[in-house]
């Protein structure tokens, strides 16, 4: 294996900082501890993948970072960053065309009416959907719908002062429902957009190879309750191929560790 290895850039501040975060659902004897004392940082511009068995609290963790839910203990800090969330289901409004779906997000972000059409066109160009502005969601493939969902997430974070720097994008298995070929293309796309916009990404997936293909770092969570078990830096040069030897080898090591965890908890 002769692939070049690049050192991770030195980073100082954190865009996302979790310290001793626990989350319990319910109370008394029926209470369920979903996250237990999770401490985790994502540096500005870092791509962090969260991996774990089903039910280990990955979505709960993203919801806490998004401010959609409150931690039972500990602190969640996003340093004033704009935070957007993207899910496995694109959840577009079916009665609106692609442009109108994006314009609605821009409206929610407070972009003046006269600027919305142009901004929506820019965002659609950036996800390579410039020719599909008038289509309704049902006229698009699953991969295209996820591109629209990505453009909409970016629309919710527009800020002219910094061109997108200072945005935290939370992605909850965004490509989980797509076929392998489409997913591969979208890996290239999200990597390009992440780079161009200097986004900080927290990316939840069940797919170990996907995590190694995309992440600067892969964070492995245990289940019941979710705890950080191990972090794997991914030092390989980008762009990576999901079927490359180096990705496969590291993914195998991560999978072994994941199996140990799943075995321990009987999930
Ligand atoms: N609102 C809720 N009320 C009660 N329990 C919840 C709630 N949300 C999540 N849980 C429980 O917390 C645990 C963690 O759930 P979460 O959805 O965060 O896991 P996950 O790792 O994202 O799972 P998956 O990989 O299957 O999507 C699970 O046991 C789940 O049943």
Describe the structure concisely for a colleague:
The chain has 267 residues and is an alpha/beta fold.
Molecular structure report:
This protein is of the alpha/beta class. Helices cover 35% and strands 22% of the residues. The chain is built from 7 helices and 9 strands; from the N terminus they run E-E-E-H-E-E-H-H-H-E-H-E-H-E-E-H. It has a 6-stranded mixed sheet with strand order 5-6-7-3-8-9, sandwiched between helices. Strands 2-1-4 form a 3-stranded antiparallel sheet. Strand 8 and strand 9 form a beta hairpin. Helix 2 packs parallel to helix 4, helix 3 (113-126) packs across helix 4 and helix 6 crosses helix 7. The model is unreliable at 1-11 (pLDDT under 50). The structure holds adenosine-5'-triphosphate. Adenosine-5'-triphosphate is lined by residues 25, 32, 34, 52, 54-60. Adenosine-5'-triphosphate binds next to strand 2 and helix 1.
């Amino acid at each position: 294996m002769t692939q070049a290895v690049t050192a991770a850039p030195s980073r100082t501040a954190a865009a996302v900082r979790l310290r001793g975060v626990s989350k319990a659902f319910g109370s008394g004897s029926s209470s369920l501890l979903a996250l237990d004392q999770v401490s985790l940082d994502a540096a500005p511009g870092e791509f962090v993948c969260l991996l774990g068995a089903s039910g280990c609290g990955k979505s709960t963790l993203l919801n806490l970072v998004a401010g959609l839910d409150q931690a039972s203990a500990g602190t969640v800090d996003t340093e004033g960053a704009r935070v957007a969330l993207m899910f496995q289901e694109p959840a577009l409004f079916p009665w609106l065309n692609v442009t109108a779906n994006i314009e609605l997000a821009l409206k929610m972000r407070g972009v003046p009416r006269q600027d919305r059409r142009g901004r929506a066109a820019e965002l659609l160009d950036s996800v390579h959907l410039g020719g599909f502005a008038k289509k309704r969601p049902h006229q698009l493939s699953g991969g295209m719908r996820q591109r629209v969902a990505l453009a909409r997430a970016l629309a919710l974070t527009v800020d002219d002062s910094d061109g997108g720097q200072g945005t935290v994008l939370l992605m909850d298995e965004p490509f989980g429902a797509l076929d392998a070929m489409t997913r591969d293309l979208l890996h290239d796309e999200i990597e390009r957009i992440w780079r161009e916009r200097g986004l900080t990404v927290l990316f939840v997936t069940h797919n170990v190879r996907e995590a190694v293909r995309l992440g600067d770092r892969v964070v492995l969570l245990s289940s019941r309750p979710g705890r950080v078990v191990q972090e794997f830096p991914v030092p390989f040069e980008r762009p990576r191929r999901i079927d490359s030897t180096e990705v496969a080898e590291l993914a195998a090591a991560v999978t072994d560790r994941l199996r140990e965890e799943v075995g321990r908890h009987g999930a």
